[in-house]
Design goal:
It contains seven helices and nine strands; from the N terminus they run E-E-E-H-E-E-H-H-H-E-H-E-H-E-E-H. The protein has about 240 residues and is of the alpha/beta class. The protein has a domain of about 160 residues: P-loop containing nucleotide triphosphate hydrolases (Rossmann fold). Strand 1 and strand 2 form a beta hairpin. The protein starts with a strand and ends in a 10-residue tail after the last helix.
C-alpha cells in the first residue's frame, strides 16, 4: 500500500497560477486535512489526485485504488440505493453482498431498495460514502463532503467518517473550510497559501476528540490566523 507523494506541483488556468510548487505527502493510513481560502486551489489539488485534472508541472504519485466523496452525493435518481453503491461495478452476488455490508456500516441497513429521492441529505451522503468505501480504497478523497448538511447531521457524519476511517485505514485527504472539522478529524492539518503549503500542524489530541479538550481553542485560533481570520465573539 502506497501513500501520496506530491512534489513541486504546478497548475495553471490560463494566465493564473493556482498551485505554484505545491508539495504534500500523505502516509498510508494517515488523515490529512487541507485548509485554504476560497479559490486557493484545495479542490484543484484533490482533483489532480483523483485523476480528474492534469497538472502543468511537478510530480504526483498516488495509489491507483482511490475514491472521491464530493460535496453533493451525486446519486443517480433512476437507480436504487444499492445500485448507486455499485456504480461502475458488475452487480454480482459478491458485489451486492459487499454493497449491503457497506450500507450497514453507514447505518443504512435495509435501505438497499430505496430510491435516492426518498432519502434525506445526510442519508444520501452516507450512500455516497458507502459507494466510496465498498471499493476498499487506498486513498479516500473528501471534497467538503458535509458542507451542504445541517449542523446536527454534519456532526453525526463527522463522527461516522472518523469511525469508518479508523476501521478501514485508507490514506485520507479532506478538503474543508471548517477549521473545527479539520482538527476533529485529521492527524495533520495543512494550510494552502499562495499556491504552496504554508503551514503544516500535527493534531496532538487523542481520539475520540471533543472541542472542549485543552488546547483545542489555541490550535483553532492559530489555524484561523493562518487563514487571515481573527476570532471574535460578541461585542463590548
Amino acid at each position: 500500500m502506497s501513500g501520496v507523494h506530491a512534489t513541486g506541483v504546478v497548475k495553471r488556468f490560463g494566465d493564473r497560477t493556482i498551485l505554484d510548487g505545491f508539495s504534500l505527502d500523505i502516509a498510508p493510513g494517515e488523515f490529512v486535512a487541507l485548509l485554504g481560502a476560497s479559490g486557493s486551489g484545495k479542490t484543484t489539488f484533490l482533483r489532480i489526485l483523483a485523476g480528474l485534472e492534469d497538472h502543468d508541472g511537478g510530480t504526483v504519485d498516488a495509489p491507483g485504488q482511490r475514491t472521491v466523496v464530493f460535496q453533493e452525493p451525486r446519486l443517480v435518481a433512476a437507480k436504487r440505493v444499492r445500485d448507486n453503491v455499485l456504480l461502475g461495478q458488475r452487480p454480482t452476488a459478491q458485489h451486492r453482498k459487499a454493497a449491503s455490508a457497506a450500507l450497514a456500516e453507514v447505518a443504512l441497513a435495509g435501505q438497499e431498495r430505496a430510491w435516492p429521492t426518498t432519502l434525506s441529505g445526510g442519508e444520501a451522503q452516507r450512500v455516497a460514502l458507502a459507494r466510496a468505501l465498498v471499493r476498499r480504497p487506498d486513498l479516500l478523497l473528501l471534497d467538503e463532503p458535509f458542507a451542504a448538511l445541517d449542523a446536527l447531521t454534519r456532526i453525526r457524519m463527522q463522527a461516522l467518517v472518523a469511525d469508518l476511517v479508523h476501521e478501514h485505514r485508507p490514506a485520507v485527504l479532506l478538503v474543508t473550510h471548517d477549521v473545527d472539522e479539520a482538527i476533529l478529524l485529521a492527524d495533520r492539518v495543512a494550510v494552502l497559501q499562495d499556491g504552496v503549503v504554508g503551514v503544516e500542524v500535527e493534531v496532538p489530541f487523542a481520539r475520540p476528540r471533543r472541542r472542549g479538550v485543552a488546547g483545542f481553542g489555541d490550535l483553532r485560533r492559530r489555524l484561523l490566523a493562518e487563514l487571515g481570520v481573527e476570532e471574535t465573539i460578541g461585542a463590548a
